[in-house]
Amino acid sequence: MKEQIYTLLNEMDNQADSYESSQVSELELKKWKKQFSVRHTRRRSPVKYVAAAAVAVCIMGTTLFFPPTQTLVYAGMKSVTYNLSQLLGIQKDLSPYRTVVGGTISKDGFTVTLNDVVLDENLLYISDTLTVPEKIENFAGNGAATCDVNVFINGKMASWGASGGMEQADDYNLISSRRIALEPVDSTESLDMELRYSVDGKAIGSFSFAATGKELLEDTFTASLDTEVSLPDQTTLKFYKYSSNAMGQKIYFKFTTERMDYDIVLKGTDNLGNPVEFSLRTVNDHIGCMEVDTLKNGYIRDEAESLTLTPYIAKMPEESGQMSSDFQPVGESFTVMTK
Fold first, then answer.
1. Separation CA 314–CA 232 (nearest Å)
2. Is this model's pTM higher than 0.90 or not?
3. Residue 167 to residue 129: CA distance in whole angstroms
4. How do residues 43-78 score in pLDDT, each as one tens digit?
5. What's the farthest any 2 CA atoms get from each other in the chain?
6. CATH number of the domain at 220-337, please?
């Protein structure tokens, strides 16, 4: 099987002031996602992480950052059904937290099979398979169909951004893993989920089911943080929470200005000397979420008891969509207890 992969990333103007506070229809959101869809391919060895360029999305003043997206690739894979553990490179057992829907929807020759769903607070992780009616001839050259999904919870639109990856499994099947950012929900309750799928901008159907993140939340370790950092534009960041569970590790911060004009990474080591890095994932309503970057170093080791991290920042582009890689240290190092 000739392996090829592209990352599904949404890119939008990151100037929140240019948007009016008006409701966005589902049709309009689909058009935006279609218009700014980005594909990226490269050759690689049989098992390797693949990185995509970072981009920023802003919808009605909300920003979603996509640092390097990680997708595991398996050479010679016979099955076209991947689970989230394989796709995200997670070594832990996700079965207690997984909602396996296993259904299919079809229209105009396209079929989507929903493999895995995991709800992690305000993030929904999805694995799905798209079967296309015609042989895929030029996947690397944008010759494959684009599959999109919007999430509705209890009848209301709940998704506001997404990242993920797609792999060509064979001549007719494409495998996707998705991280979908949701509006605040109570993940301890059973939620009525509806995933509305479209291919190349045309609706093909939806999956409806109940899901909860209660078990995952109960198995999530959290630690309070109290570290403030001042940025050059007088923005104050306050790192206030660390969390860790089977889906990975996150650090949350609050900021004082109306918008976030800097990309942020946290670099350091654990108490065993292993390198650790967190990348900015989302910014919404003055709260930022950073996730451990598994591209270079993998997930934080279970044996680690603490992390020592230093903040680094890079100015967001004001005109072009090209993210800067010129990260400079800001503030002092701080310690995070992981147990």
1. 11
2. no
3. 10
4. 222 222 222 223 333 333 344 444 333 333 333 333
5. 57
6. 2.60.40.1640
